Structures
1.
Amino acid sequence: MTAQNITLATLATMDDYDPNSMPVEQARQLIKQFLSPISAVETIKVYDAFHRTLAADVLSPMNVPPHNYSSMDGYAVRHADLTGTSNKLKKIGTSFAGNGFGGKVGAGECVRIMTGATIPEGCDSVVMQEHAKAEGEVIEIGAGHKRGQNIRLVGEDIEQGAVVLARGQLLRPVEMGLLASLGFAEVSVYRKLKVAIFSTGDELRQPGTALAAGQIYDSNRYTLLGLLTELGAQIIDMGSLRDDKEVIRAALLKAAAEADVIISSGGASVGDADFIKQLLDEIGEVVFWKLAMKPGRPLAYGKIGTAHFFGLPGNPVAVMVTFLQFVRNALWVLMGQNPKATFSFQAICTTAIKKAPGRTEFQRGILTQGGDGLWLVQTTGEQSSGILSSMSRANCFIVLPVEQGNVEKGSVVQIQLF
Ligand code: AMP
Ligand code: MG
């Protein structure tokens, strides 16, 4: 299979394609084949641009800094005047930041200068005030100064016309400041990605109401709300649905008409009240629906009309794991951002871990640094995928590859920081 030529029709003809037990990496690659970034662009205020995605390269309209200025409080001098071991210069004025010295500085003269102030004409160096002695208008300066010292030059940070930010850049606080520093009040960004979410399950009740026997609170929608807010998506919250095939069908069709992406939780496995896979078959197209991973075995991915559909498992930890391992990257691509490399490294596992070969496992880990600087990781204990508190205590995944069996205490494992 090559990167760009895959379609749903050709999937079935691939020998290594098993939608019932797909390896994690293959699932990631497959999803990628179906993603094309949104193209609609809008112009918004830089003030409102937090966590939006740049739709065009930003070229600097100016030099930064725009003028040569002093990086110290002291005296602007002509280096040629500092040939002796003790040099007496005549102070002829002062240059303040935003209010420079208008005149020209001649031989034997200097100007008192503040940090950020423009270097007066004729000067080529700044001597820190700590290295000068002032007696009235006479400034005495010793030897050992370099030409050009303590001056920040025009364009030293950014040259006019240079690409400062590239299309696809996520706008974080630093980019907001950078745009403002170049004088931009507005910026061109991709429109927000519309993501519809809903939970499924007859047992689900909303927080703030009382639980009857057998009921639990719908937490997945809150987790998803947080995850999607963090990504800067426009969330279409469709609430919590009963395990009723027609109710879910109607929700999926409505979501597909309104959203770029649909994310559901629950009902994705093979129980009698699990309709996600059947419905995706009936009204959309299934790319895969079961992964060789734990937690998160039932993860459906496919398309309904033009919308991408992720049917996440119901277990709260599995929701987070599948979102972080598959959905987030896909959403970044759809938002027009460049996919980010997963930051992963090795640590020594201080707990033994039970594992059977056959699936990739994402265990919740707590990473610490030992006194000798080595990275140590322990599991959060019981790894049942219903235990959301373990996810809150963890700061990383311990990623155990498919073929891995039991992990002995003291062995090296791969970890992924949250
Ligand atoms: P399911 O995938 O629908 O079989 O659900 C698997 C497990 O996750 C069951 O124990 C469900 O009760 C639980 N679950 C499903 N949806 C949610 C939700 N929105 N919030 C919390 N737990 C859920
Ligand atoms: Mg269910």
2.
Amino acid sequence: MHIPDELAERLRRANHVGVLTGAGTSAESGVPTFRDALTGLWAQYDPQELATPEAFARQPQLVWDWYAWRRELVARATPNPGHFALAELESRAPQFTLITQNVDGLHQRAGSRNVIELHGNLARVKCSRDDRVVASWPETGERPPHCPDCGALLRPDVVWFGENLPPAALSQAVRAARTADFFLTIGTSGIVQPAASLPLEAAQAGALTVEINPDATPLSRWADYALRGPSGVLLPALLAAAWPELNSA
Ligand code: NAD
């Protein structure tokens, strides 16, 4: 896909690049989005119904096992060219903030350093009673295991539908959206709040806004540019258009 010259030029000259990523950014790494149908053992479940506090209260073992399966899937996955392009962009932009809704840690594995995780991380586990992160627990074979301090059930340290976002991460993300002069929204359906309002904050504060997604979303009409296609292809193309010397590297 051709990247418009003006867009490449604006990226090259940007002072603060803000980025919001969603599950689509990891799709080309083989990590299914919540809107992809699950396969195999999990085909009968709707991920949007498993990722809730109510599901955990009703069927803690089922939810624990589903996260254990996702953790293994992510451990086997590798970052794709879109993740690497974002790490490269971080090293080129004077100021750069990557805000992610993803819980898979693939941005960090691709070399991104300044990552705000809005929805937590699959690799961590916390106590379901007081939210304290727990690094280890006695292996008894129980699923979920129990908190070594208080005995409550342990759960993944992710934000489920209906739960609040970590306040510090959210306020850092809002600040970045309001101060970025170039804001990229990648691979998100734009319907999970409050993350979905960040591109609007950026647009209202005057940033140039760009969406990368194979499909239109509710955020598309706010974007100055909507690039239609997979981020693993379009992000490297955008970088190569902004910094042509990358083509010969
Ligand atoms: P989503 O599943 O709602 O939407 C995914 C979006 O990505 C869609 O708009 C789709 O068109 C787009 N997409 C698909 N393939 C793409 C590609 N190759 N390149 C670019 N875009 C592509 O995801 P969401 O908006 O992030 O919201 C769902 C919630 O699910 C989030 O809260 C997130 O925490 C969680 N989640 C995370 C992961 C992960 O960490 N990898 C995976 C699934 C869900």
3.
Amino acid sequence: MEHPELKTEVARRRTFAIISHPDAGKTTLTEKLLLYGGAIRQAGSVKARKAARHATSDWMEIEKQRGISVTSSAMQFDYNGFRINILDTPGHQDFSEDTYRTLVAADSAVMLIDNAKGVEEQTIKLFKVCRLRSIPIFTFINKMDRTGRDPFELMEDIESVLGIRSCPVNWPIGIHGDFKGLYHRDTRLIELYSGGDHGQGQVNVETVSIDDPGCPQKIGQGYYDKLVEDIELLDVAGDAFDMDKILSGQLTPMFFGSATNNFGVEPFLNRFLTYTKSPTPRVAEGVGPVAPDDDKFTGFIFKIQANMNPAHRDRLAFMRVCSGVFEKGMTVWHSSSNSRVKLAQPQTFMAQEHESVETAYPGDIIGLFDPGIFRLGDTLCTGSPVRYSGIPLFAPEFFCRVSPEDSMKRKQFLKGVNQLSQEGAIQTFKRPNIGREEMIAGVVGVLQMDVLEYRLKSEYGVNITRENLPFRFVRWVVETPKPLEKLRLTSTTAIAEDRVGRPVLMFENEWSIRLAGENNEGLVLAETADRMTADEMD
Ligand code: G4P
């Protein structure tokens, strides 16, 4: 074997994303996790990075103007012998299709929920993508130091909104902001909460066994009785901890804690790392599963970050390693050009800076210099060609009719729009029956419209006019019982086609989608579409 270390390197890797709604505490939790790994020294660095990561990148003015991130990246650190890759899923105004695509590169997800808010909108969207991939989802209920909802109610919320059963691994003690600590069902130990930041490692956390005669006194008789009652209820009526169900994404292990106080974070991390799996085989078309410890190197591109420098059209392509060993300067087969390319200047992502990478293993994320050849979903590999299934197109949620201000610039306009849709920044649609030529841009996050306008201007010299359209949903028509014009649809629903001419329906609300289904038996709609078709038609 050429790389005897490969098996061990695979076994110690964990690659995951944190999915949450803005303000649930993702930045805080990420920072604490990095602290455990010693990847950053001071608390606050991730936050500073969140606010100021663009002080260092002047390639897109829009980022600076808004002080937010338009792109996402990955972070890597070591902890207890594990090598952990956290994929950053942008969640504020910078929510975009990239956020969804990033999840395609993750082996599992941590679903972070604010205990006072329960399951929120953005979490639902991201959860759906994880569900599509059947990856394990671990729930962390955050902000337990504050008044929040009853934990049983949160379990119900997760089940009714997301349709997944949960299995608490630990359980909070205390009510209405009087948080006493956490009971770990596996060890029967209670960690007592004393407020304040528990720092790196929970060395100073006092523990007591529930079986200790002094326990009721420690946490208060009332809380003790309530805990015993709650646990009985969970044991009798709750779902059993079932590893198969967890790994196939049918059951979510549930943890409680407080990220700011660094309480419950370490117990969560330890169990998460034990329960989740190292990278698993990925299925290649016509070949079947490729094991991560296969000697053959394979990887795929899941994100393309455009134009670091507007003077050049170079881009950064993010690749997830799936099998074998990646080595700097290696020559690989590239699926969409069907040719061999040399991978120079690879970068890896540490907590703070991009570092040059010499070798990488399955589960790792690498940034590749892209002179404009890579496309989303491309497979790269050594040896005989294999192809992983592509990254789907996810349904955009904001739509604008766009056109060049100066009709003489139509050619540049089309070139720019084409380029941006190839990168995956936007999708385009048109309504064939509208009687005039139109271009509809669709994006997942509304900020992408500003990105489109800015980039067309700065890179292609085209000013555009934008007219917001009222649609919020697009669905690809997979099967229809009759020609689309004959379907019974609400008056606000539009018939359109995507960039490669596939029929779609555009809706203003979910109610119209539901009616379309109810009123047209045999109509099958999809929230995602195959990207390969779109690119193959270029
Ligand atoms: P995000 O990345 O998911 O958007 O959330 P972020 O970590 O920025 O946290 C959002 C707010 O929630 C922050 O408060 C943060 O301090 C707070 N927070 C995070 N975890 C906890 C927790 O366990 N308990 C409590 N009580 N608060 C928590 P902020 O006021 O917006 O910012 P700051 O003043 O703390 O900087």
